């Protein structure tokens, strides 16, 4: 059982690395292009609220839904966000899709994935840094990356 919690903690840590840029989360299904800094900042700030709400009612099902919503929003941003960030959003969308497919209520579904997901999250660091740099240099807004 202790190993399961270590794996879950590893998965969630990896998700935190990927989700820290936060650009998504609030307006899933929103179709207006998010090319302006104000749109991106608004989505980033709404992620903080979504993350807090998820923490208050964290269950395996709500965790999967949370990551599925992030994946949808990152996919949208990979099509309509700033062109310099589209590939970064696409990579984050793939990672969030992967997280949304994990059955967190099943230990067998989670076991063995921790190291792989943590490695994938680590591979996303250049994308996260690229997004944070865009926020800082173009939008003049500092977003936490750790």
Description:
The N terminus is likely disordered. Helices cover 69% and strands 0% of the residues. With 146 residues, the chain is mainly alpha-helical. The chain is globular and about 45 Å long. Helix 1 runs parallel beside helix 6 and helix 4 packs across helix 7. It has one domain.
Write the layout of secondary structure elements.
Layout: H1 2-19, H2 37-56, H3 60-80, H4 86-100, H5 107-110, H6 114-123, H7 125-137
N-to-C terminal Cα separation, in Å? 28 Å
Shape: globular
Q: Calculate the mean pLDDT score and round it.
A: 73
Along the chain, the helix and strand elements come as HHHHHHH
Briefly note the structural class of the backbone.
mainly alpha
Low-pLDDT residue spans: 1-33
Strand content: under 5%
Tally of individual domains:
1
Helical proportion?
55-70%
Number of helices: 7
Whole-angstrom Rg: 15 Å
Question: What's the total number of strands?
Answer: 0
**Biggest sheet details:** none
Task: Tag the structure with descriptive keywords.
146 residues, globular, disordered N terminus
Short summary of the structure?
The protein has 146 residues and is an all-alpha fold. It has one domain (2-18, 36-137). It has helices at residues 2-19, 37-56, 60-80, 86-100, 107-110, 114-123, 125-137.
